[in-house]
Design goal:
By secondary structure, the protein is α/β, with parallel strands linked by helices. It is built from eight helices and six strands, in the order H-E-H-E-H-E-E-H-H-H-E-H-E-H. It has a four-stranded parallel β-sheet with strand order 5-2-1-6, covered by helices on one side. Strands 3-4 form a two-stranded antiparallel sheet.
Length: 178
């Protein structure tokens, strides 16, 4: 086998490390994209019984965004296995206890029907902020694009750029808000 073909084969079967910034992203819309990289669905050698998926690092899971009033209405079920061990937890309660759990549950539920989803989930590394261990960060070679643009806050815009934004109303200098 030539050296070039050997390099192509190694590149096809190698596990790649991806990073995804979950700030301002809906975890239930992002989960199918993360699932594709975890399971290796984009690789030409993919087969449902083949372990060809990659590692995915998710950062800023503390800053996720759910649509509408899902923080108050979405409920997560857990059962301990004992009699009377069923609990239902609202999304905002679960997120305040563990900021990584909603993203983890979203990705896990998006892999419905996957026979190896427990092993696949071991390659998902979720962090509530941007603090990732250096040995993991050294392995990252790809970034998964965010599906939704992160809005720019008003205090982050330069004053010159603020002046270019058209105004609807120009208040007088002596105007006071009550």
């Amino acid at each position: 086998m030539s050296l070039i073909r050997r390099g192509q084969q190694w590149g096809t079967f190698a596990r790649i490390w991806h990073i995804f910034d979950a700030a301002w992203q809906d975890p239930y819309i992002s989960a199918p994209w993360i699932k594709q990289h975890l399971m290796g669905l984009y690789k030409p050698i993919y087969h449902p019984l083949n372990e060809c998926g990659d590692h995915v690092i998710v950062i800023n899971s503390k800053h996720i965004a759910l649509r509408g009033d899902e923080w108050q209405k979405r409920v997560y079920f857990h059962h301990t296995g004992y009699h009377g061990g069923a609990t239902w937890t609202l999304a905002w309660e679960l997120h305040s206890k563990d900021p990584t759990m909603i993203v983890k549950k979203a990705v896990y539920s998006s892999m419905r029907g996957n026979l190896q989803r427990r092993q696949t989930m071991q390659r998902l590394h979720i962090f509530p902020d941007e603090n990732v261990p250096a040995d993991m960060l050294n392995n990252v070679t790809n970034q998964i694009k965010q599906l939704r643009l992160v809005p720019v806050r008003l205090h982050e815009i330069e004053p010159e750029e603020k002046d270019k934004i058209p105004r609807l109303i120009k208040y007088p200098d002596d105007y006071q808000l009550q």
